[in-house]
Every structure is written in structure tokens, then in C-alpha cells.
Amino acid sequence: MRVLEAALSYAARGWRVLPVRNKIPLTAHGVKDATTDQEKIKTWFTRWPDAGVGIAAGIASGLVVLDIDAAKDGLESLAQLETEHGPLPTTLKVKTGGGGFHFYFIHPGGRIRNRANMFPGVDLRSDNGYVVAPPSLHASGNKYAWVEGCSPNEIEIAELHQWLLLLIDPPKAEPVAPLPVNRTPGDLEDAIEAMRNIKTLDQSDGSRRLFAYTCRCVEQNLSDADAIAAINVMQSERPFPQTWGTDAIVARLRDAEKTVVRGSEASTCSLWRREGRTDISNSKFFTKLFGEDFKWCDAWKCWMHFDGTRWIRDSQCEVQTAAKHIGARRWVEAARIVESPSADDSLKKQAVAFAKYSNSAAGVSNLLALAKSE
Fold it and tell me: What local confidence, expressed as pLDDT, does residue 157 receive?
């Protein structure tokens, strides 16, 4: 794929692009000139046919990019972080011309600043930052390239894990996480149903199946007492080779918390069952994530955008980009429900249908119409 074709395809995804050479923007105002305007992009790459393509990170494109510099011990730093916190989620991944990697994630909303050298060889590209994208040519003569199986045409972009979001800026980053901090209490019936769907075969003492059960309990955000009760129900329905007592179950629950995300199922399936999803829920979600960045001005009949120092007219339609971010989050939510062992076919279909609607022109328009009064 030629650079121009790649730039146009990225812009079609809502990612703002700009021409670069040796990582330096060629436009007068740098990353501030990044756009999704197809005609402007064609003009740029006609003027500079040998240019590479950069992608603006941050809220403008709905992206946060983890930049791993192999020459500065970035791979070692990443390995250490994953050892301490768990592996990064599968997401869009680029092999850079310098031998490092770019990991793309969904911007969580709020203000996430660029971070240089967070750890040796590890940078963060976010608001007002950018990355060089495939198939641009690096000064070394190597091209930036999507890692096989991790391109935008093959997989969906992932959300930032909670641990990574907290590491980005613990004292100052706005606490907008992929999952609610105050999680919905778990549903005992959902947890038991999820455990009934586990097909793991017992080996020796059945500890593998017990661990799988505790993972489902943690994902459903069950308290220790409810988790013990649920697992005892399963012990009576499908006895283990040996009986597991309360202390052993609690110990496995602590192990499970190091492996899976607490409340990840309770915050999707259970909330769907209790609340459903509507235009109103989308507008409230938008206000939660972007309420400090965008306000509707009824007197001027336009959206206002906070640029970091003052409120200005949103002449660049930044609010539309932010609204599309809600649609992206709904796709992530739908994917979790589709993969959830506790979700029935009806719930899965509802989640997928609502994600499609949230990403439609009508869904975005209705969201913004309701958000004006939030």
C-alpha cells in the first residue's frame, strides 16, 4: 500500500493524519494541522510524494499510543512492566523502522498528556502528540509495518488496561478508566451460570477447575462470601476429586484477582440486563467522559471546546470526534458480552445491534442532541 492510500484509509477511520519526513512534520503548524479531510491529504502527498504519514494521537483521533524504543531498553522495560502487572491486551501493533513497537489503544477520555521516558525506552503519545505510521520509511531504510495479525483490518483496537492508565499519570490523569471504579455488585446467578459453562477436566485434585471458578467469581465482582457460596453450589452439582474448604477458596480468589479484571463481566452483562442501553445512556456516558471538554452554548447555538486555557467555539467539530469515541467504546463492550460465558444469544444480539447503532450517523446525532442539556 502506498503512503497516500494508507493516509486516506487512516483518515476514513477518523484518525487525523499529517505528512512527515524523518519524524518531522512538513506542515506549518505541525500536528495541529492534522486532518481527516481527504482533499487536503491528497494535496499534501501530491506536494510531498516522498513523505511519510503521521497519525495524531490524543482525543482528536481517539488514540493513545505506547511507544517502545528498542534502542533505549524499551523492550526490557515493557517485559518488566508485563511481569509486574500482566500482559498488554491484544491491540493494534506496529513494528517501527527502528526496531521498536507502537501499541495503539482507545483514548479513555479526559486529558491524557504526552509522557516522554515514562520508563527507559517507553514513551506515551497522546493529546498534541503523534506517531509515524505504516508504510512510512524510517531513516534506517526500514519501513514501519503493522505486525501480522495486529493491523486495523484484522483486529479491533483495545482499551487501556487499568494498571497502564494509572501508570501514565497517577497524580494528575483524570480517573476515566475502561471499567467503573465503583463496580456494580456481582450477580450470584450470573456467576453460577458462567461456572456451569466451564468444561475444564479435573486433573488430580481439581485445582484447575477451582481456579477457573474463582476467575468467573472475580469477573462477576462477587464478594468472598458470595463466591464461596457459589463455588459450594458447584461442588454439590459437580464434586471435585477433593473437597475445597473456605481458606483454600479464598486463596484461589486472591490468585484469580491477579489474572482477570475484577468486575469485567458485572460491568457489562449485568449492567445490560439491569439498565439496557439507550440514547440517554450514551449521552450520559459522553458527559461523564467529555463533560469538562465540551459544553453546548445555547446563546450562540454551538458547541464550545476547552483548549486547556479557555473555552472556544468548536469550529473543527472536535465534539463529533469525541461522540464517535462513545461508539468505539460500545464495540468494546459488545465484544466482551459476545465472549462472555454468562451472556445468552439475545443479550449478545442486543449488544452488537446497539454498538452498530451507536456508530451510525443517527446514533451520534441523537447522542449530541441529548448531551446539549446534560
Answer: 94
